[in-house]
Structures are given as structure tokens and as C-alpha cells.
Automatic annotation (TrEMBL):
It comes from the Bacteria. Pfam families: DUF2484 (PF10658). The lineage of its organism: Bacteria, Pseudomonadati, Pseudomonadota, Alphaproteobacteria, Rhodobacterales. InterPro entries: DUF2484. This is DUF2484 family protein.
Amino acid sequence: MAAFIAACLWVIAAWLLSVILSAKQSWPAAYALIAAGVPILIWLGLSAGWGAAAVGFIVGCLVLRWPVIYAGHWIRRRLRRD
């Protein structure tokens, strides 16, 4: 239950940061949210099951859509080049 509450607080913090910060400040905040979100996802997976962690991962990808889009572009470029 505590892992679920931590995941919900992570989503609220991400929303607050998106409202408060400017475009230049949003990338460092995204890196910090990713660094905080990975241990929360692992904790959620260990305590509530990996299905809950998968749902949390999808929610995290929806919240942090631009880092996910840029990561997809980067992976696609790397695969085309090789």
C-alpha cells in the first residue's frame, strides 16, 4: 500500500512541476522524476506485483511523454545507423 501511495505522490509531484516550471527548467525536473520513479516502480513491483509496476510504468510514460518520445527517436536513429 505504501508503494502505491508513493507512486500517486510521484504523479502529483510531476503534475505540480509541469505547472510550475518553464520549458528550460522542465528537462532537469524530468531527469529527477525519472531518477525518483525507477526505485518507486521497483518497490511497486516487489510489493504489489509486476502487473501494478507495468501500469505504473505506462502512467510514468504518459506523464513524461517528451523524454519517452526523444528516447524513441534516439533508439530509432541508432537502429537505422547500424
